[in-house]
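User: I'm writing a tutorial on reading structure tokens. Could you give me a worked example: one chain, its sequence, then its tokens, then a sentence or two explaining what the tokens reveal?
Assistant: Sure. Here is the example chain.
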Amino acid sequence: MFEFSAGSRALCLVDTVGNRGGADIERLATPQDFTSWLRQASLLDSEGRDVLEADLIDARALRDALYRAALAIVNGEKPAPADIGGINVLAQGTPPRPQWVNGEVVHVAEDGVRAAIALLAGDAVGTLADAQIGRVRLCPECRMMFVDKSPAGRRRWCSSASGCGNRAKVREHRARKSQEGSAR
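And here are its predicted structure tokens:
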């Protein structure tokens, strides 16, 4: 099961690599993994074709280019032109288009996988704009990248309630209690 809590579809793709900066965990090891990810992200219906190896290569290239470009911006640097160029090329594809079918909106595409990659690349462009205004963050605990959509713009962790934020708060609480105990 994949997690979709980064605040951007493209950053959810970026986060398919776990434990960045350590022993990277590749969650898109096979084309079937990416097919599952697209379906869980509601970007590919069950009738669409499965992902091919070439699609997986493009998705990983997009993911890695966005990660490097956003990280550069977060660190106050300029993204590499090759990363921006790669994202832009994939964003030129035709994303799914809305159609009115039997009273509801349905998104359709001639090739659902390629359309999903184009949509993700387009979202990556918007994510880089968010990075430039300081809304893209890197969780200090797990290194997951996310968009800070909090009103104050001060979110620090990928997840405050149950994930990294909670663990950090528990550690801080225990450290305070330990200091209070040793000060007596």
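What the tokens reveal: Residues 50 and 123 are 22 Å apart (CA to CA). The helical segments are 9-14, 31-40, 53-74, 81-91, 112-132, 164-183.
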